[in-house]
Design a protein that fits this description.
Elements lengths: L3 E5 L4 E2 L10 E8 L2 E8 H4 L4 H18 L5 E7 L10 H5 L5 H6 L2 E7 L6 H11 L8 H12 L4 H5 L2 H6 L4 H17 L2 E8 L11 H19 L2 E9 L4 H13 L5 E7 L11 H9 L4 E5 L5 H9 L5 E4 L7 E4 L2 E5 L1 H8 L4 E3 L1 H6 L11 H6 L4 E3 L11 H12 L3 H14 L4 H40 L1
Parallel strand pairs: 6-7, 7-8, 8-9, 9-10, 10-11, 11-14, 14-15
Antiparallel strand pairs: 1-2, 1-5, 3-4, 3-5, 12-13
Helix pairs in contact: 9-10, 11-12, 18-19
């Protein structure tokens, strides 16, 4: 450590006397009315962060304090710049970190768009089919996984959705629903996901006589058991289907609101967009809005920007599922925006999150290939973009793989992955204090530590190479 830095909320800098190298605490003091309160942040929480992380913590603490202590008169935060053996992190150094699948899997991640019935393990499908007797196209786990992926990868949404008849077919009992939900949480843990919002439609799980309440309760039990076992946070989104009568959508909306205190965090409209505009389900969205609840809608995937406009202005959605056809409202040249329409301006200005699913968009035919995907246009021009899996079984993917695809296709760095992850956590439907906790207690420290470790490896390798060169 070099020099203490005291910075007030007004931006004035006051330099104090030097501290001993063994100083292990930094304080920020709060003055609220006549009382003085002090909060202590241990040095260990800052360990491994470089100079700009220490300075950035001033902003972080300010956001936290302004939320916890409204009416603050003075905010003083003392932060010590951390000079360890490694130099300050720069963009050039970050580009040297090789983004391998193993490294990305270690990074803490957030997943907002994942279908529960699109992510079953092939072995689970086979075992559950033996109990419920639906015939399967293959009875070997590897062959069955290949069948799902090859069937989905036909460039057509209708063909892509056919595999769901088998996954949904084995999810018709309380035991099966619990198992699928629990295993999904375990899969998230293995993939480095710290918060997930999974979604499904109870409308398709009544063949064995279960009520909608029993269906949701079974899934929530599996998610909660998985959360306790694997320490992954979750939210459940209830889906209505655009190709079914609007009355069923209203029923799903009421179901979502009824379970909002048990783990349901939002409501979605899914299914084929072509011929099924979201405004047909207005009553369902009105019910959600009247109850101050949260909405995400599949839109701009298989239909144009009009679907996105309806989702926003008729249905009041808070997030856009997929949203690739927002590009239709943007004129670009070499991925640089030349002109924007009012819809795309609105989406960017209002920070409407886009739930982008790269692999799925190619498999369903929404995009011919990744070269034409608008992700880099959205991301590089300030839209709030998130990366997601959609259907892990059908697309043979994980969130780690989606980030790896994006990194290789669009030259992302680890800092880009961090930004996309923060975008997702900011856009989650869980409550504000929980979002803050995950961002500042899990994501930011996790990325800082991993970046430090990787840069240390690079520095050690460089020193070793230099030492060997000197010996020669």
């Amino acid at each position: 450590m070099k020099k203490g830095l005291t910075e007030t909320v007004t931006g004035k800098k006051l330099y104090g006397e030097k501290r001993k190298a063994t100083e292990n605490k930094c304080h920020f003091q709060l003055s609220r009315s006549a009382s003085i309160q002090a909060t202590v942040v241990t040095f260990e929480q800052l360990e491994g962060m470089y100079t700009f992380f220490a300075l950035r913590s001033i902003e972080i603490a300010g956001e936290f304090v302004s939320y916890r202590y409204p009416g603050i008169v003075t905010f003083i935060f003392t932060a010590y710049t951390v000079y360890l053996k490694s130099p300050m992190i720069t963009s050039d150094k970050l580009k040297k970190i090789k983004l391998t699948e193993e490294l990305i899997r270690k990074l803490p991640k957030v997943l907002l768009h994942d279908h529960l019935d699109g992510g079953l393990r092939p072995n689970t499908i086979i075992e559950l089919s033996q109990q419920h007797n639906p015939s399967l196209p293959e009875n070997d786990p590897e062959k069955l996984a290949r069948w799902f992926h090859e069937g989905a990868n036909r460039g057509n949404l209708t063909e892509y959705l056919k595999g769901f008849s088998y996954t949904i077919g084995v999810m018709q009992t309380e035991h099966a629903l619990h198992r699928v939900a629990y295993e999904m949480m375990e899969d998230m843990k293995k993939d480095g996901v710290v918060y997930v919002e999974t979604r499904f439609s109870p409308l398709y799980h009544t063949k064995s006589g279960l009520s909608y309440d029993q269906i949701v309760e079974s899934v929530l039990r599996g998610l909660k058991d998985g959360a306790r076992t694997f320490n992954v946070k979750f939210g459940l989104v209830i889906c209505a289907m655009r190709n079914l009568p609007p009355s069923s959508s209203l029923e799903m909306a009421k179901l979502a609101v009824r379970f909002r205190e048990q783990g349901v965090v939002g409501f979605d409209l899914a299914g084929d967009e072509l011929g099924y505009p979201p405004k047909d389900h207005f009553d369902a969205f009105h019910h959600i809005q009247r109850n101050n609840f949260y909405i995400t809608i599949h839109s701009g995937e298989a239909f144009g920007k009009e679907s996105i406009w309806q989702a926003l202005q008729f249905c009041g959605t808070h997030r856009i599922g997929h949203g690739m056809h927002l590009k239709d409202d943007i004129m670009t040249e070499n991925n640089e925006i030349i002109e924007m329409g009012y819809l795309s301006r609105y989406v960017r200005d209002r920070r409407i999150p886009l739930e982008v699913c790269l692999s799925s968009n190619v498999h369903t035919g929404a995009m011919p290939n990744l070269r034409y995907h608008p992700f880099p246009i959205f991301y590089k021009n300030g839209f709030r973009v998130t990366l997601n899996t959609d259907n892990r079984l059908m697309s043979n993917t994980t969130l780690t793989k989606e980030f790896l695809i994006a990194a290789r296709s669009y030259k992302l760095t680890v800092k880009d992955i961090e930004k996309l992850t923060l975008n997702a956590m900011k856009s989650a439907f869980t409550h504000f204090p929980e979002r803050l906790r995950i961002i500042y207690d899990v994501l930011k420290p996790g990325y800082a530590q991993i970046m430090k470790n990787e840069l240390d490896k690079l520095d050690n390798a460089h020193r070793q190479k230099h030492s060997e060169h000197q010996k020669i």
